[in-house]
């Protein structure tokens, strides 16, 4: 990204505002973000984050190696990493050990993770997103979007949403960089999409039409399209070159009159051909980005789909749900046009209806292990890892080919609302209800 001003000499003060007690939790208790009254960094950190109590601690199914059952205090040193206020525990690589100098046998693992920066905010961090070159991270919180330098963690830009007539809180639920890094799109609770010119910190344009808060944004890799999702139960495709070519993608969501959020997440495929949308009706909807035609409905989750992410090659999709699971969907049938029409595939072993799409796309893997709602998912640029954040305050690294959890990361003191992996690789970011965003580094062993 070019032209971003530095933070040198910048004076910025904002009042300490209490975090909202509720962050849109359809089909569940009113607490995706538990009540917080200030930044948790000011509190004495607990050495080992406790589990939730009084709740079902396991999702349907089981893991051969359950990271949730591990006591980190007695776990082998070679399979864990600890910081002052965080820890990670790793799954041992199957059958792999190494001999130490003392003759002892040590277990090996496939992954390493370390915290790089903690970025303190003035409110709940609703979203995190890297620039296309990975050099910068944007975050969204109450009334501001902020941009940080990934390597040094310095705040380089604050975009203040002070032109709204809305009183009180105005949370920025979603952010997305333009491919050239010169602009940032932000979606807020006042139903507007703002396009910011980063170097001047001025609004270059707005998209208006949604009738409820903007819950999700994504910018196509060619820079032409912006996709938005909203609580008004529609997604929209905005053409940045031709305002007459915008499209409204309407879903039929049956979830009761008192549900605030309709569309929870959106994602454009790497080639710009497809738009995937997660919603509270438990279904992933996929549209043709050029025609606005609905091409697939992926059924299998048993609660709201809160996050979707395409694989780097565009042939697969990962979804995360309030049913505590992630699913991997094989999209080859709709990409090739060979799938059946109007039929969900059957499981040949027992004849029951399997998770899948109406045009033949199948769920080929379930990722099971989170103890609470899965709120955010991302796929590494090499396609090797799937990463997820949850209301259980944890992050999980999964092997994308086997759906086996390789790492459980704990450190945030509240729900991990948003997660993103750097397109440049080896770095990911998390945003949480504890008023923090964190930048982490990972490496394969």
TrEMBL record:
Gene3D superfamilies: YVTN repeat-like/Quinoprotein amine dehydrogenase. InterPro entries: WD40/YVTN_repeat-like_dom_sf, WD40_PAC1, WD40_repeat_CS, WD40_repeat_dom_sf, WD40_rpt. It holds the Pfam family WD40. It comes from the Eukaryota. Keywords: Repeat, WD repeat. The keyword RNA-binding does not apply. PROSITE patterns: WD_REPEATS_1, WD_REPEATS_2, WD_REPEATS_REGION. The keyword Repeat applies. Residues 1-68 are annotated as: Disordered. GO terms for cellular component: transferase complex. WD repeats lie at residues 172-206, 207-248, 263-297, 298-331, 367-402, 409-445. PANTHER family: WD REPEAT DOMAIN 5B, WD40 REPEAT PROTEIN. This is WD40 repeat-like protein. It comes from Cerrena zonata. The lineage of its organism: Eukaryota, Fungi, Dikarya, Basidiomycota, Agaricomycotina.
């Amino acid at each position: 990204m070019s032209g971003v001003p530095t933070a040198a000499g910048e004076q910025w003060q904002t009042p300490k505002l209490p975090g909202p007690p509720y962050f849109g939790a359809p089909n569940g208790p009113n607490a995706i973000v538990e009540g917080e009254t200030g930044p948790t960094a000011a509190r004495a950190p607990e050495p080992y984050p406790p589990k939730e109590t009084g709740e079902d601690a396991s999702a349907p199914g089981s893991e051969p190696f359950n990271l949730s059952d591990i006591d980190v205090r007695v776990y082998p040193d070679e399979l864990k990493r600890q910081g002052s206020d965080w820890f990670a525990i790793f799954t041992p690589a199957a059958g792999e050990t190494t001999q130490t100098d003392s003759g002892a046998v040590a277990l090996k693992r496939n992954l390493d993770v370390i915290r790089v920066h903690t970025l303190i905010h003035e409110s709940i961090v609703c979203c995190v997103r890297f620039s296309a070159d990975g050099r910068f991270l944007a975050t969204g919180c109450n009334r501001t979007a902020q941009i940080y330098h990934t390597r040094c963690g310095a705040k380089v830009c604050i975009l203040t949403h002070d032109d709204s007539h809305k009183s009180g809180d105005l949370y920025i639920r979603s952010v997305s960089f333009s491919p050239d890094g010169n602009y940032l799109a932000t979606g807020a609770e006042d139903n507007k999409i703002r396009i910011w010119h980063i170097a001047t910190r001025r609004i270059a344009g707005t998209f208006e039409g949604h009738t409820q808060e903007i819950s999700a944004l994504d910018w196509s890799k060619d820079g032409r399209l912006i996709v938005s999702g909203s609580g008004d139960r529609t997604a929209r495709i905005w053409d940045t070159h031709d305002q007459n070519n915008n499209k409204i993608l309407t879903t039929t969501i049956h979830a009761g009159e008192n549900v605030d959020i309709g569309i929870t997440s959106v994602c454009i495929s790497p080639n710009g051909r497809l738009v995937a949308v997660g919603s509270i009706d438990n279904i992933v909807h996929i549209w043709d980005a050029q025609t606005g035609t609905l091409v697939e409905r992926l059924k299998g989750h048993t609660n709201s789909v809160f996050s979707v992410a395409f694989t780097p090659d565009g042939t697969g999709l990962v979804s995360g749900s309030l049913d505590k699971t992630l699913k991997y969907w094989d999209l080859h049938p709709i990409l090739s046009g060979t799938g059946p029409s109007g039929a969900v595939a059957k499981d040949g072993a027992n004849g029951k209806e399997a998770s899948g799409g109406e045009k033949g796309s199948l769920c080929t893997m379930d990722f099971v292990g989170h103890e609470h709602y899965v709120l955010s998912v991302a796929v590494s640029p090499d396609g090797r890892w799937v990463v997820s954040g949850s209301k259980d305050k944890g992050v999980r690294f999964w092997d994308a080919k086997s759906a086996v959890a390789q790492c459980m990361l704990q450190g945030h003191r509240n729900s991990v609302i948003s997660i993103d992996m750097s397109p440049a690789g080896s770095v990911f970011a998390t945003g949480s209800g504890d008023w923090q965003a964190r930048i982490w580094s990972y490496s394969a062993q």
